[in-house]
Design brief:
The complex is a heterotetramer. Chain A is 78% helix and 0% strand. Chain A has 3 helices and no strands. In chain A, helix 1 packs antiparallel against helix 2 and helix 2 runs antiparallel to helix 3. The longest helix of chain A is centred in the C-terminal third of the chain and has 31 residues. Chain A is elongated, with a radius of gyration of 17 Å. Chain C has one domain. The longest helix of chain C has 49 residues. Chain D is mainly alpha-helical. Chain D folds into 3 domains: 136 residues, no CATH class; 439 residues, no CATH class; 73 residues, no CATH class. The chains are: A mainly alpha, B mainly alpha, C mainly alpha, D mainly alpha. Chains in contact: A-B, A-D, B-C, B-D. Chains A and B meet through helix 1, helix 2 and helix 3 of A and helix 1, helix 2, helix 3, helix 4 and helix 6 of B.
Chain lengths: 100, 205, 354, 655
Amino acid sequence: MAELNHYLVLSGVLFTIGTAGVLLRRNVITVLLSLEVMLNAVNLSFIAFGRFLGSSDGQIIVFFVITVAAAEAAVGLALVIALFRHVETLNPDAFRQLRG
Amino acid sequence: MGFELILFYVFAAIAIGTTLLVVVQSNPVYSVLLLIGSFIGLAGLYVLLQAPFVAVIQIIVYAGAIMVLFLFVVMLLNAPREELVTSGILESPATRTIGAMLAIAFAAELAWALNRSSTLAWTVTDVTRRPFSVPEIGRRLFQDYAFAFEATSILILVAMIGAITLAGRQLTEGARLKSRPAGDASRTDGGMAEGGRAEGGRAQL
Amino acid sequence: MAPASRRAGERALIPSVAIAQLVIVGFVFVVLLTAAAGMVYMERKVAARIQQRMGPTLVGPYGLLQPLADIIKLAMKEDTRPKAADPILFALAPIISAAAAFTAFAVVPFGAETDFFGLLDQPVPLQIADVNVAILWVFAVASMGVYGIVLAGWSSNSKYSLLGALRSSAQMISYELSYGMALAAVLVLAGSMSIREIVDAQAGAWLGFIPRWFVFLQPIGFFIFMTAGVAETNRAPFDFPEAEQELVAGYHTEYSSMSFAMFFLAEYINMVAVSAIASNLYLGGWHGPLLPLWLGWIWFLLKVGFLLFFYVWMRWTLPRYRYDQLMAFGWKFLLPLSVINLLATAAGVLYFGI
Amino acid sequence: MLSWIPLLPFIGFAINTFGARRLPAKAIGAIASLAMFAAFVVSVVAVGRLTAQPADSREIVQTLFTWIGSADFQVPLALRLDPLSALMILVVTGIGFLIHVYSTAYMIEEEPHEYARYFAYLNLFAGFMLLLVLGENFLVLFVGWEGVGLCSYLLIGFWYQKGVAADAGKKAFIVNRIGDVAFVLGVLLAFSQFGTVSFRELNGVIAGLPAESSFGVVSAIALLLFIGATGKSAQIPLYVWLPDAMEGPTPVSALIHAATMVTAGVYLIGRNAVVFAHAPEVLTIVAVIGTATALWAGAIGMVQNDIKRVLAYSTVSQLGYMFMAMGVGAFTAGIFHLFTHAFFKALLFLGSGAVIHALAGEQDLRHMGGLKKELPVTYWTFLIGAIAIAGVPGLAGFFSKDEILYRTFAGGHQLLWVVGAVTSLMTAFYMFRLVFLAFHGERRHAPVAQGFSPAYPVVHDSHHAHLHDAPMAMAIPLVVLAIGSVVAGYLNVPAGLGGSAVLERFLEPSLHVPAMEGAHAAADHADHALEIVLMVVSSAIAFAGIGLAAFLYLKRTDIPDALVAKFPGVYLFLVRKGYIDELYDAVVVQPIKALSEGVLWKADARVIDGAVNGTGQIVVETGSLVRRVQTGSVRTYAVSVLFGAVLVVGYFLWS
């Protein structure tokens, strides 16, 4: 019988992996993927809490997260394409035109 | 060790393994596919958590739509293997270590939080055993959360328009000239697929 | 005595049902494989008839063994792979398509509950899994099918393949929306997402002679579903991924032998799946006049068969669209139509309690 | 049901606004008039239902929705029909409908879309006016109040190409604002003191209090409301806008500036009779102001030469009468006069409109005369109107005016009575001066065509064209109103003439004022002999005025000029409207201009702009410092975000 902390630990691990990906990868697309991972980790804990508190809010919030994730992916990828056209690379460190 | 627990470990293993590979994988296409695998693992966990609806939605939206989008972009840009460029200060080992240390610190904090908090020993009680039926969730979603729902729909619309205006633009002559020979095939296709999506977008709008 | 017997019954019951389930799974698998083979035969025959030819006649009586010959031929061929191809994905792609095609069938019921003539103490549904989100499952699996094609196209690293892949993925994504809308309209009508319940909602008849099939309530929905289904299965007139005249063979240009066979298989099984779902959702599944419920599966087979024939018929009758026409049709006609259909259905249910 | 009464005109407004360029002129006029007629019918039905109820508690309330709901401050958007508002809606819709019909013919020479604009405004006005009279609380009434103000502005400035009209519109708007400020203050005071904006509750609360001996809260409220009323109803000192308002189309003058809107002030006082009754001092002020206005406007009216201006001043003067009645506590009489006045003044304006129409925009009395023959219908109806307003026995004006005078006298305000009597003399005089100058004698031509109005193209030369009498659409309203002017009075035949004051008893529930019991009783039980005597006197006065006018303008037409020559000062003073406009300009307008100039160049240019620029400067400075942080590299940002996250989580874990 899985307890709540099983799920929470799992979600924490996933979240950390995602974070590391965001920080360490040098490919914008992979960074975005890692972002999705983080979102999913959060979703998991939401649903787990919802389940163990006996409330459907957890699931409902997950819908909203998924929606936002979709929007984020669409815009993010569009940006990636636009950037790629200019600097012909996916390395986030190459996008430095906004240096103050 | 009950059947459910076994399933939990199986799915958890799938999720963690694939996710790790996603992060270490240097070929974006593989990353995308592995991420889909991780999504499917999570979907399994959702089913264990009595949320089959979310599980299926997860597969449809994440695996079915968002990831296809990623795959599209990867192919469209004919994404190169990650170059080992060293771009100034940011590539100095100092910053890298800072990033890594922060990540570790964060993980540590999470662990700490987990074993500190008292809610962890919860198991499913009879009260909370009952799964939520789809109609129930729908009712809450469209009644209690109606406003948030409408807000997100507007958000989606805006994102759609933004994506089209950002990416739907045709390549400028300059960009064409700068284009690398290696990926010309993919670029032409990209143009077409792009046209397809842009058109779809317009029709949606 | 009685308790003992009940215990015995229980002891006997648990495994027997499990066995029955396993049997059903295996049965479905085999039937699908043979169905694919049968489809090949049917396709060639019908095509020939439409073109005023005889079609396969030599192998076996009426050329019935032709499919077998085809399979053997394919199996015997050498499995080639382009040098520049990505080995793993190139191998993975056909598996994904075939797997997706099979998975879709997991939730498709094909008959009423039966206890196999008293073989079991408790009737089992003729279905692999009766999940309460079946429709969404179908939708999800359909969206998974894209990957096989896209990966195939991309991994084989050839212009034609990539063109086909991109085309097909764009096409599938575009038509999935209408597909989903049509499904949604049906589940609004039936008030359930379990296909079995949807089918049972179509039992009986109006005025005694018109069967309560949703196709009569949802003619537009049926049309949309079938059109989108054809597009989803990449069949003519929407067979862009493999437009021989334009892209040699589209996404599976580079494939040969069994890996090619798998795509082939996937296409036909997809057809079967779509037809089965369509006949469940719109044509009342195994419900039909004249036949007792335990023989309903016959009705089911008839309906599926008809739809399959319809597929083939269409392929050999209609010319292929142009790509932009396809997109325009999908986004500017089919999608709005499906939305309107959904709204109309919802309004009907809400105000007239259909 | 009630909601339809204001709604119908609004619908007409909407249709005419959006259909302006698509609909043919006929349709536009028809729609507008139809909307009004429908509103009239609904009103009649509503009033019918009202009268069906028991006499002492007649009212229909319809609450549409809670308009403002904040804690204990709940304002419903509610409509209330009681005898008073019943009378008002009948007047507004009925006469409004007639004037719409009249306008269809009067404005026909406008451009189609202008025509649509006109009727849209007219409908909008009607809608707001009905909202005003039906409002159940001050706020709803205020919406109507401002709405009619807006419409009056729009309609006065309808021919905005004409500078004078535009200015007149602005003048009306601004002068009304002054009153409105007082009005709002009054409402706020009422709310802050008694915690309600509903008429019924407010009056209920105040009815419980004793009448204020000294100037207290209630008096303040009453005074503020009264100032608001002076703005809307053109009383001293805020009457100056009304004469200029005559720049608008004549039917507008008839509807807004004679029959309905300008009486809003009177209605307001009637609606809050209790409040005023509890503020005796304010009542006195009201009475004095009203009487003064009546006299002053009448005096000016005697010498004006613009046919519409004469009527305008007569309107002001009659309004003064109404306020006088209110002031002496004779609320019924005042409302009664409002009612009759609506008929004959609308009639007079429409008649003058017919004249102007016939003369192609000529408005100067000195260039008229002898129109009796060419315009029989106009003449006779106009004459009836004149007789009615002059107070000749048997017609509407007689009853209402004598009611007022009698009440005034019986109320113990003999002085006011004298002034009122003089005023009625003036009234009779200037009305018949108008009649004789316009219709009798022989035609006097203008040296050159005067009285510009875009409605009449200049090619249409007025003098040699054959004069056409009012067309059907204009004649019918005239006749109807003429009949009204005759019979309207018989609704309230005073007890003195053996009549049973129907209207009075009908209005009783709305205007019932416990505090005034004494006065009413006194008036009611006053011997009818006195009433008869007063009537004879005032009738005599009326005839005297008519006779004088006849003598001066039919027999000895040289005397007026002689008088003018003898007392040029007085004449000039009156013709120039007592230099009031010039006075206001000097005392109010110029100082304000100067002040704002000063503020502009001192405060605004230095202080405010300085502050703004300073802020900008500061931002620039800080930005140039802080921008170092912006490395432009995504991952630095990511790291910093994570750093923050770590800190926050750590904080929560520590505590």
